[in-house]
Model the fold of this input.
Amino acid sequence: MEKKNSFMQTKPVLPLLLSMAVPMMLSMLIQSLYNIVDSIYVSRLGTEALTAVSLAYPLQNTITAVSVGIGVGISSAISIFLGAGAQEKANRAATIGVALSAVHCLLFILAGIFVTRPFLELFTGNPAVLKDACDYTYIVLCASFGCILQITMEKIFQGIGEMKITMYLLASGCIINIVLDPILIFGLLGFPAMGVSGAAIATVVGQICAFLLYIVVYMRRSFAVQIHPKYLCFDKGIISRIYSVGIPSSIMLTLPSVLVSVLNSILAAFSDTCVAVLGVYFKLQTFIYMPANGIVQGMRPVVGYNYGAGEQGRVKSAIRYSLLCTAAIMLLGTLLSLLIPGQIFGLFDADAELLSAGITALRIISLGFLVSTIGVIASGVFEALGEGRHSLAVSLLRQFAITIPLSFVLSRFLGAVGVWISFPAGEFCAAVVALVLLKKYKGGAFSPF
Done:
């Protein structure tokens, strides 16, 4: 088992990082493409349908946030245990992680039944928008087990360095979604036209199929960790390790949901168009941040394994290369947002009002992309090292502590533009704090500069 992961300690750092990150970047790009294609199809139903899906985003993102957060905790534990040569503990972490995720599935079914409508009623009084938002959200929450268990398996495979497998299976789920979207939304090939409900069904079917493919792949060969009932027990140390990283990571990933909910309430005072702009932006920004997240996902097992093995120099090298690669992606995103924002928003059949508001928003918000490199990578580093609190502190500044108060203040004087300005301001503050935390952590042992 140990030999399966020895390459993480022996392969040159840059080729190792690229071999781990590139498959994840490609799969993240495919997932970003799905998110955008999904919104393009829904936009064909009208601005009200697009607004409905935008309102559903916070609850839908909460599922992903909790799943990915706990998955990161599982992945971090597996990587560190394997680096330290603790094989049985790695097996136990994987098995206990799957069991915890199964419990989370039940909790989200209950949330879907009892929370959906009261939550959505807070943000719209339009009956048509509310109906579409409820139809979409009931489906994605009550059938969320596919998403949760798929992500759990994805993070386990990432923790042992099996990035190509995760790329293929994540891509498979996204491709299934993309194929099913027009069929179920518009009623092609003999299927009834289901509108936004069809988009939701396509999403959950893709997720369930991806999870089943993980099970098939796992059963067909042996991997660096084993998931088996004999490793299932109440191990307080492992559960604490998973949740000490997983809970802060989940909170961090839930912040966009909270952010969107609060900003929707601010923007709704100006117009429904501003709410739709925010929803479209959060779809678009995944096309930039998901590839960057692919680098973080490739970096985590490299950092975690070498940290567990005591290879401090390799840890610092991995961090430096990750910063450079992410900065290149962010620079490209900034240039596209500044130069062709109209063409980007034009993909969503934007009317004149939506197009004008969207161009302004994208140009302002994109000013924070490049500086966000530091916060994004620092959060991933602290997760890999098992320091969930530091990761959470950086993320709170990026997406909550600065952005929301500043939006309230600036929107009173500048309208919706004040909300857009708060995004780059939050990224700048988070970058400064991230650099300070890296410099102070263990005497600057993992500071990249």
